[in-house]
Amino acid sequence: MCKFIFNISNKCVILNIRRIVMNIKLVAIDMDGTLLNDYGEVSDATIEALKAAQRKNVEIVISTGRVLKSALYFAEKLGLKSYTIASNGAIIADRDLNIIYNSPIDNQTIKTVVEVAEQENIYFHFYNENTYFSNKYISEIDKYYNSSKERLKGQNINFELFDDIDEIINRKDLNIYKFLFIDDDLNKLNKVRDRLREIEGVNISKSGFNNIELTRSDVSKGQALQYVSNLLGIDRSEIMSIGDNDNDISMLEKAGISVAMGNAERAIKEIADFVTKTNNEDGVAYAFRKFILE
């Protein structure tokens, strides 16, 4: 497949772009660093592009590492009427907000992961559908989920502080989907990553330079995207995926056209078919105009 960057004007590339425009029926979009700019907002240009694509009956599927409640909040605010993928693919909601797929982490694995985190003295939290749990309270993390900005009010993600992990895992009907570890000490982060990889049945990824994300081994955005596309009867060649980081790789690989943001890590750009502009330059809207709207 041809690879593209946004300032290429080669005739062969343009012909391929025009051919792809006719076929995109589903777009899977990451949130942080992709759909959202660095202020945690969706630009007016991007909102208009999403609306225009929906008028062409294109399915717009949010695919994020965030907790489900946050993903559904943005989907509603943006008027998206499709499926929603959250927690890196561990949970999927349908158009009516019903959970149609989930893959929680088992209790023994949760205990093992917490033990590693506590031994290495690294901040962590984990999610269910609407709550994040931690043994430490950090105000910056809480603000991330509950922004005071007017445009982002209403997420109201719950927070629970615990002393003993057994307090959490002994609850009935509680599903934990993802762990997030954060530390600016990259040596510590690498050590923790190596230890987590020794745990059987987990998948390790990241969504930023200073974090680690952990789910069950059968969980990925790519697997979730394939699940949704099968339900909709949409072929891989009719899918476009847009992302910026390691946890987006699997869904980029499941798409007919894979788009890396201009602010994406180098490794993501190298595997993508097209590199658009950055998340602060309406990169999602630019990709929509290239492949869907023109």
Task: Please specify the SSE layout and strand pairing.
Layout: E1 4-5, H1 11-21, E2 26-29, H2 44-55, E3 59-63, H3 68-77, E4 84-86, E5 91-93, E6 99-102, H4 107-120, E7 123-127, E8 131-134, H5 139-145, E9 158-161, H6 166-169, E10 178-182, H7 186-197, E11 202-205, E12 211-216, H8 221-232, E13 239-243, H9 249-253, E14 257-260, H10 266-271, E15 274-275, H11 283-293
Parallel strand pairs: 1-15, 2-3, 2-13, 3-4, 8-9, 13-14, 14-15
Antiparallel strand pairs: 4-5, 5-6, 7-8, 7-10, 10-12, 11-12
Helix pairs in contact: 1-11, 2-11, 4-7
* End-to-end gap: 21 Å
Query: What would the average pLDDT be, to the nearest integer?
Result: 89
Estimated structural class: alpha/beta
Strand arrangement, major sheet: 1-15-14-13-2-3-4-5-6
The DSSP helix count reads 11
Q: Any low-confidence stretches, pLDDT <50, length ≥5?
A: 5-22, 148-152
Helix content: 25-40%
The CATH superfamily of the largest domain is HAD superfamily/HAD-like
Biggest sheet architecture = 9 strands, mixed
How many structural domains in the coordinates?
2
Q: Might you state the CATH topology name of the largest domain? A: Rossmann fold
Give the C-alpha Rg: 19 Å
Strand content: 15-25%
The strand count comes to: 15
Q: Give the overall form.
A: globular
Q: For the record, what CATH class of the largest domain applies? A: Alpha Beta
- The SSE order reads EHEHEHEEEHEEHEHEHEEHEHEHEH
Assign the CATH architecture of the largest domain: 3-Layer(aba) Sandwich
How would you characterize the overall build of this protein?
- The chain is an alpha/beta fold and 294 residues long.
- The protein has two domains: 4-102 and 220-293, HAD superfamily/HAD-like (Rossmann fold, 3-Layer(aba) Sandwich); 107-216, Hypothetical Protein, Haloacid Dehalogenase-like Hydrolase, Chain: A, domain 2 (2-Layer Sandwich).
- The protein has eleven helices and 15 strands.
- It has helices at residues 11-21, 44-55, 68-77, 107-120, 139-145, 166-169, 186-197, 221-232, 249-253, 266-271, 283-293, and strands at 4-5, 26-29, 59-63, 84-86, 91-93, 99-102, 123-127, 131-134, 158-161, 178-182, 202-205, 211-216, 239-243, 257-260, 274-275.
- The strands form two sheets. A nine-stranded mixed sheet has the order 1-15-14-13-2-3-4-5-6, with helices on both faces.
- α2 (44-55) runs parallel beside α11 (283-293).
- Mean pLDDT is 89; it is low at 5-22 and 148-152.
- This is HAD family phosphatase.
- GO terms for molecular function: magnesium ion binding; phosphatase activity.
- It holds the Pfam family Hydrolase_3.
